[in-house]
Specification:
Length: 463
């Protein structure tokens, strides 16, 4: 067997070893903690646990919402939107979630790339000599042998980044749902205010008519009619303002859902439905351990620890190896050799990057604590406001509103027969107007704060 045949055999054997070695590296990658390929984004199972501590309102006995495509089929058929339908539309179509999905795919591509073994390299080794019969050709093949599991660590860190991207999708999804829910109840409160002002307008119109009749009968003066007319005009102005506010809030909700101009009619829902009941201890435990922001912070700690290990093994030099062969036109000058090339870590042992990686680990740990405190602060604010609004709304519903209506009824009866002064009647009417508006404000706060809590709890179903 001559040297040429020997070189070809070595070259073929070298090429066949490379893919097998790369496959063994990929096999070892799967054994790395956190290095397994993440599954598709999974919503935390908080809802299963939350079912034991959160009770939603019973569904309204109203017709279901028909399927929509974002446009109306005719001018006479307007779709009625409920919270479930709008939430589904937002999750399926909002560009923020599509953007997050694209970033997940990008991170998956980066994780795949980080685990790929370097390609073979053709190397001419020494300069080629073209001199007739004295021509010397020196072809060779080289490859890099990556040592100390560097590729495995690179891929493991990239997989942690991919998992972080998946949790960002989860976080953005529930933030979007919380925003849609909150705006839904803002719109519901706005359309309730319009209805309340319409009913109050009927009250003030009747009062003005009564005042005019009394003035004609010469049992009251013109001043009483003017005061009643002022209240009536205030209610009309408030009704006009509430109508404009309702239109603006509808546009905001449509933009949140991702279909500007979609909503131009009343929503299907009720502010008077029973609000969810939250367990504070469960909420605190969830937001500090299970919330997507916590998972992102925990994954960052794992990633920074992997990157620290990666920095610590960087000083170990990779080997560049490969066979080469010198061929000439005159027999007797053939040569075969095997190259081994590596750096010698004398002055640069990656000290700076190792120290930086250690600091990054501490940074990520402190960030976790900061995220937990921030979530607890948001929870405390939203939960206390929700509890206070629930109690306030209950007091308005059971005491203040019934008493205000009865007070106005008695005042009007006494005023009509002359037993009560006009000032008492006017004050009773104004008290009812204020109580009705305050009640709507309290109900709005009940549901908007509950929506914020649902986002922190990452509830799929609400209420």
């Amino acid at each position: 067997m001559d040297r040429r045949q020997l070189f070809l055999i070595v070259l073929l054997a070298f090429a066949s070893v490379t893919p097998a070695y790369a496959q063994s590296v990929r096999t070892r990658d799967s054994a790395v903690s956190g290095g397994q390929k993440p599954k598709s984004p999974r919503i935390p199972s908080a809802n299963r646990a939350a079912k034991t501590v959160v009770r939603g309102a019973e569904p309204d006995a109203e017709p279901g919402v028909r399927e929509i495509s974002g446009t109306q089929n005719s001018d006479t058929e307007r779709p009625k939107f409920d919270l479930e339908t709008l939430s589904r539309l937002a999750v399926e179509n909002h560009p923020v979630l599509r953007r997050d999905q694209a970033r997940i795919e990008s991170a998956a591509g980066q994780a795949l790339q980080k685990g790929l073994y370097p390609n073979l390299m053709f190397n001419a080794n020494n300069p080629q000599v073209f001199a007739g019969r004295n021509t010397l050709l020196r072809p060779g093949v080289q490859m890099d042998l990556v040592v100390k599991g560097k590729l495995r660590l690179d891929r493991a860190a990239a997989l942690k980044a991919q998992q972080q991207s998946e949790n960002v999708l989860i976080q953005d999804k529930f933030e979007l749902l919380a925003a849609v829910r909150r705006q839904f109840y803002v719109v519901l409160a706005a359309q309730t205010r319009v209805e309340v002002w319409k009913r109050l307008l009927a009250v003030t119109e009747a009062s003005v008519e009564t005042g005019r009749e009394r003035f004609k009968a010469k049992v009251s003066d013109e001043q009483e009619v003017l005061l009643l007319q002022i209240d009536d005009n205030k209610v009309r102005a408030s009704l006009a303002n509430a109508t404009q506010m309702l239109a603006g809030q509808r546009r905001q909700l449509a933009a949140l859902v991702g279909y500007p101009g979609l909503i131009d009619d009343n929503l299907t829902g009720s502010l008077g439905a029973k609000p969810p009941l939250f367990d504070e201890a469960f909420l605190e435990r969830f937001v500090t351990t299970e919330n997507a922001q916590i998972q992102i912070a925990l994954l960052d700690i794992d990633k920074q620890k992997i990157l620290l290990k990666r920095a610590q093994v960087e000083p170990y030099p990779n080997l560049t190896i490969g066979p080469a062969y010198q061929f000439d036109l005159t027999r007797g000058n053939e040569q075969y050799w095997f190259n081994v090339i590596f750096t010698i870590p004398v002055s640069d042992r990656n000290q700076g990057n190792i120290e930086s990686a250690r600091a990054n680990v501490r940074d990520s740990m402190e960030t976790l604590g900061q995220v937990q405190l921030d979530l607890l602060r948001k929870l405390a604010d939203a939960f206390s406001a929700h509890q206070g609004a629930v109690k306030q709304a209950q007091q308005f519903r059971t005491q203040i509103l019934p008493e205000s209506r009865e007070s106005l009824r008695l005042a009007k009866s006494g005023y009509d027969v002359g037993d009560l002064s006009f000032s008492v009647y006017l004050q009773s009417q104004r008290t009812l107007i204020e109580a009705a508006q305050d009640y709507v404000d309290a109900l709005e706060k009940v549901w908007t704060t509950a929506s914020i809590v649902s986002g922190l709890l990452q509830m799929e179903q609400f209420p």
